């Protein structure tokens, strides 16, 4: 960046007029050019400060601008605006839905281009299908709302005509139109239910694909890691098989000062933890995939938060009792203290 663009900002910020005099030795102070140069520098400085205060991932482009010899720089997730509709089809804004999970996956970008590209393509296709189905459902909902409004309008018109001393001659025609509209509404309701079922299937497929990608990345991490990384595998501490079956709705009970515990971890880990707990409390079957019981304490369950963190909790009849959120390498030591 041009030094004459950013240095005036720091000169004004730290009240050092010598920098300005060295930069513009021939410009008289308080001249139009002098003021224009300072204003331009301050604008650039403010922009840089805002970028520095924001999330660092916002500075990573969706596609690489340069390619280093032998290494392709890629994002593991598509670039989506924070206020854009979430690609999962929930209807919520991206920042309130899958933003945290995608940020976590973004940190785990793989340099295995072939496998990563295939998995990203599968995710992209699954999300596109889900978005298309969500758009179709929204169109059908709008059509049904319009039909309902038309039915109400015609029914009101028929009621007004019936209240008159001499019924309007067009009333029989309106009644026939009303019957047709009601049939259309009934057909739309049936089709809408089918689309909802199809969207639910696509959501499950998307979650399955996400789990496959996470498993692949974890396997790659172990395959390319050091022997110490392999020792951190905690499968020997848990019972085989996930916790399945129909789950009721439960309340979440947090331990004291759990917000301090969350504060020790990156924001995406904290968000992922609270998101998973919300889904577990709602009884979502997909949320219990990967939840297993501890060998030494079968009443205690373990859920993975990304690759390097573990959530410990117990399931009561009407509550989820959160125990702790810990790094993966501390799991064995934490089990001994339960």
Question: Any overview of this molecule?
Answer:
It is a single chain. The chain is of the alpha+beta class. It contains ten helices and five strands; from the N terminus they run H-H-H-H-H-H-H-E-H-H-E-E-E-E-H. The chain has helices spanning 3-13, 17-23, 32-53, 99-107, 113-163, 171-224, 227-231, 258-263, 267-282, 331-336; strands at 251-253, 292-293, 301-305, 309-315, 319-327. The protein has a five-stranded mixed sheet. A hairpin with a 3-residue loop joins strand 3 and strand 4 (309-315). Helix 1 packs across helix 3 (32-53), helix 4 (99-107) crosses helix 9 and helix 5 runs antiparallel to helix 6. The two termini are 56 Å apart. Mean pLDDT is 76; it is low at 109-115 and 224-232.
Q: Overall pLDDT, averaged?
A: 76
Overall geometry? flat
Write down the Rg. 29 Å
Number of strands: 5
Number of helices: 10
Major sheet description: 5 strands, mixed
Structural class: alpha+beta
- Amount of helix: 55-70%
Residues in β-strands, percent: 5-15%
Give the strand order, joined by hyphens, for the main sheet.
1-5-4-3-2
Unreliable spans are 109-115, 224-232
Order of helices and strands: HHHHHHHEHHEEEEH
Give a nutshell description of this structure.
The chain is α+β, with helices and mostly antiparallel strands and 338 residues long. It has helices at 3-13, 17-23, 32-53, 99-107, 113-163, 171-224, 227-231, 258-263, 267-282, 331-336; strands at residues 251-253, 292-293, 301-305, 309-315, 319-327.
Topology:
Layout (H helix, E strand, L loop, with lengths): L2 H11 L3 H7 L8 H22 L45 H9 L5 H51 L7 H54 L2 H5 L19 E3 L4 H6 L3 H16 L9 E2 L7 E5 L3 E7 L3 E9 L3 H6 L2
Parallel strand pairs: 1-5
Antiparallel strand pairs: 2-3, 3-4, 4-5
Helix pairs in contact: 1-2, 1-3, 4-9, 5-6
